Amino acid sequence: MKKLSVIIFSTLILVNLSFAQETPEQPAATDAAAAPQEPVKTKSIINGVEDANGYNKYSVRPIHESDIMYQKTILRAMDLREKQNKPMFSKNKEITKLLIEAVQRGDIKPYATDSLQEGPALTIDEFLENMKMPTEGAELTQEEKDIMLANGDSSFMAGGGGPAYYLPQDLYQMQIKENLIFDKQRSRMYYDVHSITMLVPSDHPANIKGIETPVASFEYKEVVEKLFKDNPQAIWYNPQNDAQHKALGDAFELRLFSSYIIKVSSPTDAYLVDIYGGDQKKGILASQWASFELLEYEHNLWEF
What we know:
Layout: H1 2-22, H2 31-34, E1 44-46, E2 49-51, E3 68-79, H3 95-105, E4 110-111, H4 124-130, H5 142-150, E5 173-183, E6 188-200, E7 213-219, H6 220-228, E8 235-236, E9 246-247, H7 248-253, E10 260-264, H8 272-275, H9 280-301
Antiparallel strand pairs: 1-2, 3-5, 3-10, 4-7, 5-6, 6-7, 8-9
């Protein structure tokens, strides 16, 4: 009986071994599952600007979002007729002249608003249309001109044969949109310029509307890389020393211009003068107050 039990037990072991050998191997994992997966990059949003690496794509010297402790978006107005801004507006080297010529060459792209790529871009024809001086009378279409010529009336040609455009010297008002950022990694405040906007001044005699009209906005990073860099015409004219003219990009970096705040980021996105009911005097005082508040914030970081 004992021998019979041993024989049965041995037979069962042999059967199990043979079954294990005949069992087909499990199919290998699919190539898609076995292949290493690339890490998914998370997109961050900095002031509405998406960037896969956490940097603002409009920054000339970008700061990672994890290093930003404090940030305010500021809109500044700059009058190129002011004495401190004259070096950017020297004869035949006006910053507006450089921008206009760069657009006509196709070197830089004009935008309709300072939102840049988040807003519509302008074609060269649309850009030139914004630079056209308005006329008192209605402008004739090409079809109307053809009809007048067919009837023997060529009076419309007496006006000089083409529209008049604003000259670079006429466009002396500009706006600068920038972020004021405190970088906790370097423990200092930075001015991060995003865009510059060229305007038709409200007090220009040819501006019959009587309000500032934007001609175009430009991405500051693109302007620095494609217009200011290694360009002997893009200079900040040093009135004290002809041997020490500076590049326009360095002039912006060193804050060698004069400007005043007209808007600080807020829930209402309102201009400072509009907050005080359109009172210009209160708007100027509010601009100075906003500047002092930002300066005081930076000061208090080192006091407490």
